[in-house]
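Reading a protein record of the kind used here takes only a little practice. To see the layout at work, look at the sequence and tokens printed below.
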Amino acid sequence: MSIRILSEQLVHQIAAGEVIERPASVVKELLENSLDAGARRVEIEIEEGGVRLCRVRDDGCGIERDELLLALTRHATSKIATIADLEAVGTLGFRGEALPSIASVSRMRLVSRSASMANGHAVTAENGTFTDPIPAPHPQGTTVEVRDLFFNVPARRKFLRSERTESQHLVRTVERLALSRFDVAWTLMAGRRRLADYPAADSESERTDRIGRVLGEDFAASALYVEHQGAGCALAGWLGLPTHARAQADMQYLYLNGRMVRDRLLAAAIRQAYDDVLYHGRQPAYVLFLAMDPARVDVNAHPAKLEVRFREPRQVRDFIFHSVSRALEATRPRVLGGGVDGAGAMRASGPIARDFWPARGAGQNDLGLGVAEAQMEPWRAPAANRTVGSGASTPVAESASAPLGHAIAQLHGVYILTQTATGLILVDMHAAHERTTYERMKAALREAESIPAQQLLVPAMVTLSATDAELAEQHAEMLAKAGLEIARSGPTGVAVRAVPAWLPAADHATLLRDVLADLRDTGTSRRTEEAIEQVLGTMACHGAVRANRQLTIPEMDALLREMERSVRSDQCVHGRPTWAFVSMAELDRLFLRGR
């Protein structure tokens, strides 16, 4: 076949394949245009999952009559004019591709009225043919009707799913945008069915209500609020507690300057911040908003604008990691609103926590709280040590200094029972002791500037690519601080002379390669720290009190006070909860009291 110039219509349809995948893609592009136009109310109507009809109506600034046809022209936009505008773009759309791409694969009608126009005007587009604007009644704003999606591209239409599936994709699209703009009212209708309805949320309670409707009431009631600034970035939003983690990553919403993004660097930083408190294989839930200078990020990486590139990825990654990690450190028992709460509604702000660098080795004697074997069952303890049946001997009401109350008994050698002014708390003593021990060991290792290294009698030879060998040589000083002493031994060879003292039996070659992979991607790595933390977690687990080890009341109280002082004490090292609260109201319901 000879070389030829493609027809303009075919060019548009090829371009549409990069932007328009399904009805939800159409609605996403149209809704982003509505937001860029300053809309405060957006209404979406669909038929047959959006395949037969997608209608989006907004109350934005509208389009001038003379610009209606221009809006359907490829690469025509009001968002940018120069390369400088592109490098600092702050709008959701800017490529000038959405409307012409949609028009090339559907039957489109565009009606709009600007504030300067006495009435609205409409244009239609089908198979590359546009009509001239004609008068049409319309309030200020714009309505876009997209009918018979992919009617002229049957190969694409075959890949669409059932009406129910396509409708679900549309609902999720509206949910994502509804979380990005609380000040905008959103409705999604399918015939007479209301699939989504989110009134404008201006107050804190209204925003909480919208989050609860999208992510569930449990998330809204217990989410940890984070707000932090630093490194030229600002992060705000809600972090789901580790106890509300999920099997899938289906409740992770991350916005950059108001734009929903999917970025592996940021997602990995958030996931890493949860490592210490998340149960194996579980995924955190969160709604986070990152704001930064638009000039520091490239949003023009992909036509769908979901992928971004950072000018300083390491700095942004570290900011996200430390902000989330510091917020999760605050998950400890405390008094809230007359009851005991783990972390819900807390606010985390202030300086970033310093980097983790282990110090001296913690010996086995550092593991325990000094608990001893009791000489009798806790429920038979002397009256001086008990609160049961001795109403005035020990205060039981929780306070700011003792939110977990005071121990009254040990149940089956596994759980500590404590009484508070508002109910009953059960503490898994092994899980709680494991967490407090682990945090003490980590704190003991933070003070030194480098990880202690163990010299190898015979250096371990590792073969790398020439690029990785060069990278290892360039970062030799940083690797040494992490306990990995290396020396270049040829174009593709590296000799590992020392390894972190806490990891003498580690796979040195795999560890080095993993560290170098992180350095390539982000310019930093926590592989050695993570490996050491795993060792500390194992040691803490083995050193924690075991089931059927009976404690005295003072020993149980000592563990409770240690939990209240320790960070992340709501979960053990493996992510399991360490305590649970049962209110008096719940107990009363069990026994039908007051009915």
The chain is about 30% helix and 25% strand. Residues 357-595 form a domain with the Ribosomal Protein S8; Chain: A, domain 1 fold (CATH 3.30.1370.100). The CA atoms of residues 303 and 588 lie 58 Å apart. The first helix runs from residue 8 to 19.
